Amino acid sequence: MSLHSIAAAGLRTISQITKLHELRFPIDHNGLAVTLELLSSSLPGAPVVNHKGRYVGFISEFDVLQALESDREIAQLTAKDIMVHDHLAINISTTIKEAVQLMKTRHFLVLPVVDKEIVVGCLTRKDLLRAWLGMGLNQPI
After folding, report:
1. pLDDT tens-digit readout, 50-84
2. Would you list the domain boundaries of the chain?
3. Is the per-residue pLDDT at 141 higher than 70?
4. Are the beta carbons of 58 and 137 closer than 8 angstroms?
5. Minimal CA–CA distance to 112: which of 55, 64, 28?
6. pLDDT by residue (tens digit) across 11-31?
7. Could you give phi then psi for residue 90, rounded to 5 degrees?
8. Taking a C-beta distance cutoff of 8 angstroms, is the pair 59, 29 a contact?
9. SS3 99
10. What's the topology of domain 3-132?
């Protein structure tokens, strides 16, 4: 089967990806803990959630660097202090093609995934590339 035929085999949605990244930060999470978790993960950023698990913002390594650059004491900050509010999330029913287009046009490295407003994980460009090729999907091609 050629790569073209895999991609053209039908609509693939984010819900078909078998494993999403689980990293997320509670809104009141300590800034130093956020920084250490980002350093120890393979992700350059992750969603911030409220106490109900709803998406409220996003923290990237750049956001942490910006907080550090402004001479703020990272251990005295919370995720809420560091996060950006305008980052987008995609719904679990979004197609892989739509997610790729969004990442490409907005230059995102990570996209939070929500289901009924609750963050269920996040994905990277590599995850989308694997899914486009039919790897890591929970349904046969």
Report:
1. 999 999 999 999 999 999 999 889 999 999 999 99
2. 3-132
3. no
4. no
5. 55
6. 689 999 889 999 999 999 999
7. -110, 155
8. no
9. helix
10. CBS-domain (3.10.580)
